[in-house]
Amino acid sequence: MASFRVQEVLLRTLEDLNAEELKRLQWHLIQGVLDGKPPMAKGKVEGRSLDETVSQVIQFYDDDTAADVTEKALQRMGQTQLARKLRKNLDNGAAHRNPADDVLPNA
């Protein structure tokens, strides 16, 4: 599973949001944006930093769903360019991902 990679892409993409936009993203996550997928609990994301929000999304959903939910929330916010950037980064990473990258070096 490449959760760390998906988390990294989400963080890099969402760091373009300002504080108000982050609050709006969190609101969309609480409302639910994908049919058949549960909304996140208010306490999981409301008032959290970007890093904490992304961590909660990754923990709550599987990788693909976390990416899809985030992309859909961005679209609903009118952040279509950022949603496209997210999808492009995820798709490019998936196409060029080396399975050896998933193995952590010995400490």
Architecture overview:
The protein is an all-alpha fold. It has one domain: Death Domain, Fas, CATH 1.10.533.10. The protein is built from six helices and no strands. The chain has helices spanning 3-14, 19-31, 42-45, 50-60, 63-76, 80-96. Helix 1 (3-14) runs parallel beside helix 5 (63-76) and helix 1 packs antiparallel against helix 6. The longest helix is centred in the last third of the chain and has 17 residues, at 80-96. It is globular and about 30 Å long. 26% of the residues are buried. The model is unreliable at 95-107 (pLDDT under 50).
Number of helices: 6
CATH-wise, what's the superfamily? Answer: Death Domain, Fas
Average predicted local confidence, pLDDT: 86
Structural domain count: 1
End-to-end Cα distance: 21 Å
Q: Give the proportion of residues in helices.
A: 55-70%
Architecture, according to CATH? Orthogonal Bundle
For the secondary structure, the number of strands is 0
Radius of gyration: 14 Å
Biggest beta sheet attributes: none
Give unreliable regions as ranges. Answer: 95-107
- CATH names the topology as Death Domain, Fas
In the CATH hierarchy, what is the class? Answer: Mainly Alpha
**What portion of the residues fall into strands of 2 or more residues?**
under 5%
Order of helices and strands: HHHHHH
The quaternary organization reads as single chain
What is the overall shape?
Answer: globular
Please state the structural category: mainly alpha
List keywords for this structure.
mainly alpha, single chain, 107 residues, Death Domain, Fas, disordered C terminus
